[in-house]
From TrEMBL:
Gene Ontology biological process terms from the UniProt entry: iron-sulfur cluster assembly
PANTHER family recorded: IRON-SULFUR CLUSTER ASSEMBLY 2 HOMOLOG, MITOCHONDRIAL (PTHR43011:SF1)
Domain of life: Bacteria
The name this protein goes by in its record: Iron-sulfur cluster assembly accessory protein
Record PROSITE patterns: HESB
Core domain sequence ranges: 14-112
InterPro entries for the chain: ATAP, ATAP_core_dom, FeS_cluster_insertion_CS, HesB-like_dom_sf
GO MF: 2 iron, 2 sulfur cluster binding; 4 iron, 4 sulfur cluster binding; iron ion binding
Matches recorded under Gene3D superfamilies: HesB-like domain (2.60.300.12)
């Protein structure tokens, strides 16, 4: 069973810049009713890695919510690790990209793709990869 939340009880959100970029990417994806799926996997130099995808599937146990007109999808296992996080889109001299501002991350790597939470370790591959290999 998927869980759809009202805006007042949202576990994650998306910034104005993130929403603008997400709308552009979703509309060019050709996937009807798609949203941004945020997920966590073990790996990276800090223990966990963020993953994002444009997804039109709603899987068993997903939490689905709307923020700034963007459908956000998080699976049951990833949700506790991203509770309170905000997806953002940042432009820099090296180009632009989505980033996750996660209040649960107690440390992260220099490239911002992986993180560690206080008191929880990745299930496998922790610390096995360097920043350059995400």
């Amino acid at each position: 069973m998927t869980q759809t939340l009202e805006p007042t009880s949202q576990p994650i959100g998306i910034s104005e810049a993130g929403a603008a970029r997400a709308h552009a990417v979703i509309s060019s994806s050709g996937k009807e009713n798609a949203g941004v799926r945020l997920f966590i996997k073990s790996g990276g130099c800090s223990g966990y890695q963020y993953g994002m995808a444009i997804d039109d599937r709603e899987l068993e146990g997903d939490t689905i919510l709307m923020d700034r007109g963007v459908k956000l999808i998080v699976d049951r296992m990833s949700l506790p690790l991203v509770q309170g996080a905000e997806i953002d889109y940042v432009e820099s001299m090296m180009g632009g990209g989505f980033t996750v501002n996660n209040p649960n991350a107690t440390s992260g790597c220099g490239c911002g793709s992986s993180f560690r939470t206080d008191g929880s370790a990745a299930q496998d591959g922790e610390g096995a990869a360097g920043c350059g290999s995400h």
